[in-house]
Amino acid sequence: MPENQKPNSTTKSKAETAVTDSDNIENDVDSVDDKDVADVDIEIDDIDDELNASEADESLKEDIGKKINQLRLAKGYSQRKLAKLSGLTNTSISSIERNKVSPAVNTLKAILTVLGSDLTTFFSDEWKEPKARVIVTPKDLLELNEPNSKVSLKQVYNCSRTRNLGFLIETYQPNSSTEEKIAHEGEEIGTVIEGKIIIRIEDSTYLLNQGDSYVIDTIQPHTFINPTDSITRIVSAHTPTTY
Questions:
Q1: Same structural domain, 77 and 124
Q2: Which of 8, 40, 101, 221 sits in a 20 to 30 Å window from 211, CA-based?
């Protein structure tokens, strides 16, 4: 360009336009970046909310199972008795207490009615967890069978929510037996401390004398029978703590 020639308006306009376009592009990029960051923040917040809600649901489900277990034992009911009175199966009660499933509202209501409670009290702040005790006296033992039953199953229960082992003191009157073909989750170990006992496990029969012990998978249908004219006593432990 000659020295005495000045830039024309068209050239200047294009240069200014180029600068302006560059600024606009940077602004657009900044705007996009800000929007993306905001979107990411929102998504993270949503994920956190979902995780918190999930944790709350799990905690609530855990509380339901443990509370039902505490109410049942405080009432002195076995799982079979609670299941029978509430119109459910023993497996259903076991699954609920172990927090394997969450009961529907109608199911929970039926269970609480049998246990002398209601939904309002169950979910209120008035719920008080009993304090676990170290010593369990004879009067604190929970009888799991009916009062007129010839078989007494007394559970050693100390109100602990973290217990992993159940313990029974069993007394069999002469010529008595448990319900036919009992089955429940877990493993049971016991010792005959007085008398004799017959254990039927499906098609097999075992006779135990005083001092003999047994180890059985309780998912297999089984029956305990005292075939003698004398009392039989057994102490047994089972895991999980459901019975």
A1: yes
A2: 221
